[in-house]
Amino acid sequence: METGEKARRLQHLYEAIRNDSTYRSADMGTVFVPGRGSFEGRPVVFIGEAPGRDEERQEAPFVGAAGRNLNELLRDIGVPREAVFVTNLVKYRPFTSTGDNRNPTPEESRRALPYLNEELVILTPRLVVCLGLSSAKALLNDRSLKMGQANGTIFTGHGLQILVTYHPSPYNYRIPGKREAMAEAFSKLGKILSEPQ
Ligand code: URA
Q1: Is 168 touching ligand 1 by the criterion CB < 6 Å?
Q2: Which ligand 1 atom is the nearest neighbour of the CA of 88?
Q3: Does residue 1 surpass a pLDDT of 90?
Q4: Which long-range contacts (C-beta less than 8 Å, at least 24 apart) are formed by 93-101?
Q5: In the chain, what are the domains?
């Protein structure tokens, strides 16, 4: 699909999510956060869980602390952030009773999944990278997936190649074992990208 057509279809899809009154729970923000980045040809598509407060403010995914960690992991394998597409399973910020960010619930993930699948059909990725268990469990339809085993593994599902790694949250990034596991998964990504398509 030509890039202009992809852009049109993405806008159409995002409009459909905004118009779906069942998509957004009562304890989610009202600001829609679309995916962002390059979708020329067959891009690499990163999928997080849901926007946080920083992402809601800037209406863009992974622009806060986790985004800075993602940028660093990409920089270490020589891939500019602008060269990839970054999106989230859920496109609104889920919040707790005290107003903090929270992970999407399994039910919220289930409601978001058909739209994410549609987004991936439009993007035609060369490789999908699931950042954290929320998107991995939803895309691979495996509620019992464990990151200890899944990190760095490439799965095949829906005709897609799906690499799973830890979410680059500040919490995970501070734990040396998890940080090393992320670096290993990203170095696998770097090797794949250095091979001819
Ligand atoms: N965490 C996510 O999963 N997504 C974002 O966009 C930011 C932080």
Answers
A1: no
A2: 4
A3: no
A4: 93/28, 93/29, 93/31, 93/33, 93/50, 93/51, 93/52, 93/53, 93/55, 93/56, 94/25, 94/27, 94/28, 94/50, 95/27, 95/28, 95/29, 96/27, 97/27, 101/50, 101/52, 101/53
A5: 3-194 (3.40.470.10)
Mean pLDDT over the full length of the chain: 97
> Minimal CA–CA distance to 84: which of 120, 119, 50, 43?
43
Which residue from 46, 53, 55, 182 has its CB within 8 A of the most atoms of ligand 1, so it is best to mutate? 55
Give the distance (Å) from ligand 1 centre to CA of residue 39: 19
What tens digit of pLDDT does each residue of 89-99 get? Answer: 999 999 999 99
179: Cβ contacts below 8 Å, ≥ 6 apart: 172, 173
Phi-psi region of 99 (alpha: psi -120 to 50; beta: other; left: phi over 0): left
- Would the pTM of this model clear 0.70, i.e. be above it? yes
Contact between 185 and 151 under an 8 Å Cβ cutoff? The reply is: yes
Cβ atoms of 101 and 54 within 8 Å: the answer is: no
